[in-house]
Amino acid sequence: MLAALLLALVPWGRDERWLAVPPLLVVAQGALVALNGRAPLLAWGRRLFWLMAPIFVSLALVQGLFYPGARTVIWQVGPLSFKREGLLFATLVGGRLLLVVGAFMVLLTTTHPADLTAALVQVGLPPEGAYLVLAAIQLLPRMQARAQAIMAAQQARGLALEGAPWQRARALLPLVGPLVLGALHEVDERAMALEARAFRAPRPKTSLRTLHDSPAQRLGRWLLVLASGIVLTATRWPR
Amino acid sequence: MQRQFNTLTLALIPVAVVINIVMGQIVAVLKLPLYLDSIGTVLVGALAGPLAGGITGALANLVWGVLTGPTIIPFAITAFVIGVLAGWFARLGWLRAGGGAAGLVKAAVAGLITGIVAAIVSAPIAAYLFGGVTGAGTDALVAFFQSMGANVIQATLGQGLVSDPLDKTITYIVVWLILLALPRRQVARFPQGEQLVA
Amino acid sequence: MPVRCSVEHLTYTYPAAPTPALREVAFDVTAGEVALVAGANGAGKSTLLAALAGFAPHFFGGHLEGDVWLDAPSGERLSMRHTPLAEWVTRVGLVFSNPFNQMSGARLTVFEEVAFGLENLGVPPDEIRRRVAAVLDQLGLAALADRSSYALSGGQQQRVAIASILVLEPELLALDEPTAQLDPEGTREVLAALEALSQAQHIVVVATHDLEAFEPLATHGLVLRDGRVARRGAFADVVRQPGLAALGVTPPLSAALESGAWKPWSATPPPFDLTPDDLALPTFLEVRVENVAYRYPEGVEALRSVSLVMKPGQVVALVGRNGAGKTTLSKMLIGLLRPEAGRVLIGEHDARAFSVARLARWVGYVFQNPADQIFKRTVWDEVAFGPRNLGFSPERLKWAVELALAACGLEGLAAAHPYELLPNQRRWVTLASALAMETPVLVLDEPTGGFDRFDHLRLRHLLRALRAAGRTLLLITHDMSLVAEVADQVVVMGEGRVLAEGTPRQILTDDELLAKAGLEPPPVVRVGRMLKLPREVCTEEELAKALRDRNGGIWRSGFLGV
Question: What does the H/E/C string look like for chain A?
Fold first, then answer.
């Protein structure tokens, strides 16, 4: 739960003086994950890297080379000229993004979705909302397996999945059709399973998963909100 | 949410969310230059109304973000808008199953409009949060528009307008064909079913 | 006063349906009784159970006359019609056949899944923990409490579904074909769980085609035909009455013999008018699997040096536990998986050299789940999809589709929507879809799910006709009676290897082998032993002959009990 609070740690600094902040804070996030052990830290780092690397490369190329109005060339590679304004913009956006994404990943690697939804229900999310999230997460593997089975079945009926673009486009409906029709057909039973367990009973529900929210955590949350407010004011105040 | 949705709609939403995600798998196998990741969203919008459609879209981005990485979560706003539009178009009768070529054209136009709106909604998100890039091949388009003198947001919008309308048009056509293939009795059980059977 | 459920003049019509699905159904069940509901597919079994549980009409809508009454232990008399569904489900629980769809999705572990209903009813957490633990114990699930309910076998998952309903402490538990989608081991698990329930003074109502398996539990029987009650009474009496076969019901074999009206299935003429000549093709192909090995990308070793020969005009049955490698092996025949070592020859062609879509000209494949392939608006178009992909001319297409529809009993349904058919008919659509492709080789993976007696007989006749026409047939199944009646060769698989190979007689009478492979001998073998026949019998024809030899053609009622 504490992890969620890191989201507040997003400084919206707008000039070069703030460039060093995001990396420092991301290291802080890493330290927080490490409290949960080495494996989560590695998982967090690896996922963060693979998620952000293509975006960084793309940012550097697109904005470094083509940032509108940029003139100051700082690095010339053959016909390509990287410009200062573009790279600065890329670094700012990239740093900000890294922080937000990093914070989200802290939340995801340390908190199980079930705990997260249970916590959200405790603070007022309708149980139906929690159901939607968890059911989707748990349905995914089964539906992926079905997609595989459908591809197998339709190929066995002579459907070619390779060939000219037109031919491949024609294979779309025989694959999407069974996926959707079959899934809609099952919706009835899934709805009945919910009804059979009194999910729509018009009375207050209880919950087995209760989460502890200590005074220290509450204090921490308020401090973070305060800190963000200060950062925001400090960076936006007239200079 | 408590009373807004009947149980059938409630059970439908997670299924549609997963259909959105799994579509990526199918499109990848077929090597088609499309996303088609709003098929479930448009379907729920059509069958169960704008709010259910919007929730499906937003939830799909949220769940996919939780499972892979949060970079797509901000686009939940776009996905929500797509679902709501689908619901409205269905109410207007633009997704009515049947009507031959005219029905198909109506669905396609609805898709085209949805695609344009989606591009307009996405552009500021992509520009401010991501500096216009997504780390995918379409970034080349952003670079192209910027080199032509566009600013970041214009370039992002340009990129969106090239890919989104086509993708959503095909999405709507596929959904229309699926609605056509569904048994009427099944369609009629959903809240907006009456608007869909010709 | 004991807890009792009375169904009174129940007539129910689905929304927009032209005729009622149930008409004037009436019966009583009392605590401690286990009532089996039997009848052909479409006779109204599922609808009756849905009505008991209040889903018809409270969930489906539609029109209800009559009512279901429950005399609660408190002395109240409750009306289904006038009780909201969320209340009624605490009185009558419903379990259906697909275990996966019954997992709510809202909870992660088995313990939480079972607790879900009680949470919804606002039961205090301490009481929830106590009641869930007790139910898990009762159904032998305690060891699985912390596992994900999605990472279980079918039998385990079905028991979790039963536990999830049972924890609400309903007076009546209605189970709609609870074993139809399970393998023999899963079926045994569920039967043991139900036995525990009936001893705990619940009312249990089970709709099933498998009277043989439920015989030890059943106290009462109800047979439906076209939504009406055709037979009703003590189970032992109902299954000994003549005429059940005509109702689409296969009574337990021993009971059928005692009724004196038993005939082997093959004495019933085929339900189609097709000769082997109609089904014959210009080409015959032999399939050879040579020392094939395969490992899944995740590292699971699925096949270790498997060899097998399938000849034209023969049915090879592939049997064994789930996960033994049967489906993996069969997928090699159509190129969906490529062997890591060894090779698969279709005729003289190495399967490796061809795409799946190309191999589909030679090998037809009927997959387990019809929903994984159906997408057209009419049965005719659905069946025509494969032949069209293969480029059949319009005349040949028409001929092939119509022949396949006739063979599968779908002639009258060509224009129907596949999803408006009954589940067993949808399975026939997939069979017809494969048949219409006119392939010399045909693979059938668990083709009998949800079949009634009529379906079983049709399939047996059809497989025999295809065999006589010279097709090469591979049958994957848990149904040992089907194996006994139609197979020429049985291959038993276990842990990716061939454990044994032989004729049905050799395999199905080898108790040690069957136990090792998680299988059970078919009823004919068991009854033959019970009768102490001079020679082991395997098929119904052999049983009939042995009985004729022994009794001079007469078997009397009650002779089994002697």
Answer: CHHHHHHHCCCCCCCHHHCCHHHHHHHHHHHHHHCCCHHHHHHHHHHHHHHHHHHHHHHHHHHHHHCCCCCCEEEEECCEEEEHHHHHHHHHHHHHHHHHHHHHHHHHHHCCHHHHHHHHHHCCCCHHHHHHHHHHHHHHHHHHHHHHHHHHHHHHCCCCCCCCHHHHHHCHHHHHHHHHHHHHHHHHHHHHHHHHCCCCCCCCCCCCCCCCCCHHHHHHHHHHHHHHHHHHHHHHCCC
